[in-house]
């Protein structure tokens, strides 16, 4: 009797714990590629900027009321620059470069978002009074200050800290249009990596600078050789130092970010983790203050659950389905979409055929990664599915259009026209070499494609399917490996593409794109 009672009690306790956890947020807070995050709170609203490098528009801005459920609300720029590398012209690209780690701040009713780009060689400063509607004003100056962070100090001065390993601080002009002549300009910390040891693989970078209760705090990431990504924290009474540093967190490789507080006085550190093919994904860890230091985590560990509201999912805030039907006054493309590099806006439309995205060809390309106007959005974890319907009626000889899983080692499924004949093909690219794994004759113009992603425990596997009726799905090719590669420096993306290899002037019409946070049980 006692044994049965104990079992029943244990079952009730387990059920209670599970129910309680279901109502709480859990890490990662966003299982999608949102790296290099920078966060602020304005009143009861949080804003976050992130990195999307070679994508256009760039420097995405997200908004949340609870630190867990985020929604894309704008981008800082429509075009980072106008050059061959950003335009995919003359065989050039800017994969893995473009705009890097951004910094978001709010001062005197103005929002500031800053970034830097090796591609342009400049530091870019974007400002607006309306972070959702804009307009954004841009100023730039050289050089590109690496992984910088800005601080509006109490005395009206503006500082920028930047660098790798050796960190520097410069005073900026009050309007952030450049470095102030005669202002503070010095080495801030000679070796900011030192708290993590002497054998360092990646020197301290990813700076996030704060002033809290009269003290200056600086967050960085370093990576000890043979170890893991590590949070380093420095503090000082003056911006000029002296600075004292310590390891802030060393768990699961969760690192690089900063501090955020809630309206009711709680503190968190926002950080991210390398998670394989899905990309670099955000985490939150609780923070307590002891002796003037922020203490990260629970007993030095990243907790699985957080005392915050549960996630409602990443659809529709971070990714979303699209029927390509637009009402009067609606933007042609939702914020979930970004182009691979700068697009040619004359070669796409959601108006020429109502309810369809039309991708037109305007030049000859033989390499998918260098083809213009691939329209993308993030994949999400732990699993996800993207589907689309393609009308190939107006494609020309040599055209190739369909659905992609985009990274350096990409996968494609689509319609290709060869010798006047349509066929469904599946392509897999490994280490720069693209192979057509399967080809199937197509005798109709409308066809459906599906891509599935499994990122559970870094499985990083993708599968492609096609359908002739939108109901019965047939696997094509073989499962692909989806490794995270540094040359692209980005998680895998779903992409809708159409490019010409022989003749220009053809076009492909996509009826919809649907995304789900699940995969088929039967395939």
From TrEMBL:
Active site: 36, 205
Record's signal peptide: 1-20
Domain annotation Beta-xylosidase C-terminal Concanavalin A-like: ranges: 330-515
InterPro entries: ConA-like_dom_sf, GH43_C2, Glyco_hydro_43, Glyco_hydro_beta-prop_sf, Glycosyl_Hydrlase_43
Domain of life of the organism encoding this protein: Bacteria
PANTHER family linked: BETA-XYLOSIDASE, BETA-XYLOSIDASE-RELATED
Entry protein name: Beta-xylosidase
Species annotation: Flavobacterium glycines
């Amino acid at each position: 009797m006692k044994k049965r009672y104990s079992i029943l009690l244990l079952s009730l306790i387990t059920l209670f714990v599970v129910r309680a956890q279901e109502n709480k947020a859990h890490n990662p807070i966003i299982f999608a590629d949102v790296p290099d995050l920078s966060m602020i709170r304005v009143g009861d609203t949080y804003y976050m900027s992130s990195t999307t490098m070679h994508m256009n528009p760039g420097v995405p801005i997200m908004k949340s009321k609870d630190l867990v459920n985020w929604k894309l609300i704008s981008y800082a720029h429509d075009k980072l620059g106008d050059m061959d590398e950003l335009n995919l012209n003359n065989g050039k690209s800017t994969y893995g470069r473009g705009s890097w780690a951004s910094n978001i701040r709010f001062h005197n009713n103005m929002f500031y978002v800053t970034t830097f780009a090796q591609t342009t060689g400049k530091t870019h400063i974007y400002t607006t009074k309306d972070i959702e509607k804009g307009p954004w004003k841009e100023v730039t100056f050289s050089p590109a200050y690496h992984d910088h962070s800005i601080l509006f100090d109490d005395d009206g001065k503006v500082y920028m800290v930047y660098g790798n390993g050796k960190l520097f601080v410069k005073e900026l002009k009050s309007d952030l249009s450049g470095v102030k002549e005669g202002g503070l300009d010095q080495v801030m910390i000679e070796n900011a990596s030192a708290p993590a040891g002497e054998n360092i693989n990646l020197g301290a970078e990813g700076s996030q600078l704060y002033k809290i209760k009269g003290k200056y705090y600086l967050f960085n990431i370093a990576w000890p050789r043979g170890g893991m990504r590590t949070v380093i924290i420095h503090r000082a009474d003056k911006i000029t130092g002296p600075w004292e540093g310590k390891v802030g967190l060393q768990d699961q490789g969760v690192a690089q970010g900063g501090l955020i507080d809630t309206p009711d006085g709680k503190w968190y550190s926002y950080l991210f983790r390398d998670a394989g093919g899905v990309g670099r994904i955000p985490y939150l860890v609780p923070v307590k203050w002891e002796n003037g230091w922020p203490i990260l985590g629970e007993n030095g560990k990243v907790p699985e659950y957080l005392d915050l509201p549960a996630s409602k999912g990443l659809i529709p805030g971070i990714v979303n389905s699209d029927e390509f039907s637009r009402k009067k006054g609606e933007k042609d493309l939702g914020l979930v979409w970004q182009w691979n590099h700068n697009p040619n806006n004359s070669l796409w439309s959601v108006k020429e055929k109502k309810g369809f995205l039309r991708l037109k060809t305007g030049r000859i390309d033989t390499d998918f990664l260098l083809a213009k106007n691939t329209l993308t959005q993030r994949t999400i974890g732990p699993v996800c599915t993207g589907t689309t319907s393609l009308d190939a009626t107006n494609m020309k000889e040599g055209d190739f259009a369909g659905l992609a899983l985009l990274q350096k080692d990409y996968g494609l499924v689509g319609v290709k026209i060869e010798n006047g004949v349509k066929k469904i093909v599946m392509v897999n690219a490994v280490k720069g070499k693209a192979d057509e794994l399967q080809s199937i004759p197509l005798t109709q113009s409308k066809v459906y494609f599906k891509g599935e992603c499994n990122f559970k425990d870094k499985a990083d596997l993708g599968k492609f399917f096609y359908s002739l009726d939108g109901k019965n799905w047939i696997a094509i090719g073989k499962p692909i490996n989806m490794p995270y590669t540094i040359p692209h420096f980005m998680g895998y993306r779903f992409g809708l593409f159409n490019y010409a290899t022989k003749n220009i002037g053809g076009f492909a019409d996509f009826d919809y794109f649907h995304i789900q946070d699940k995969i088929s049980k039967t395939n």
